[in-house]
Design a protein that fits this description.
The chain is an all-alpha fold. The chain has one domain. 39% of the residues lie in helices and 0% in strands. It contains three helices and no strands. Helix 1 crosses helix 3. The termini are close together.
């Protein structure tokens, strides 16, 4: 849940995401275009953690890097986060 390093991590995170996308495209994945953009879907925070913190740390890191995660309102028929837990996650 730490976000104190978000500013320092932002630029390297963005470079890593761009490099991963470029590598995937070289390996035959469809290119990201305005008509068919790449969607970043962060792993959701457990509901209890989200309530306790009041924010999702991964989304803070993505925002600092200028990466906008996919949100359900832009996806027809999808409500809430596009991913969900099917069991209680273990503490890390």
């Amino acid at each position: 849940g730490r976000t104190d390093a978000a500013r320092a991590i932002a630029a390297p995170l963005l470079r890593a995401v761009r490099a991963a996308v470029a590598a995937a495209e070289r390996d035959g994945a469809p290119a990201s275009t305005p008509a068919s953009p790449l969607e970043v879907i962060p792993v959701p925070s457990p509901a209890a953690s989200l309530r306790r913190r009041g924010y999702a740390p991964v989304e803070v890191l993505l925002a600092r890097a200028g990466i906008r995660p996919m949100r359900a309102p832009g996806v027809p028929g999808l409500r809430g986060h596009p991913l969900r837990f099917t069991r209680r996650p273990a503490d890390q």
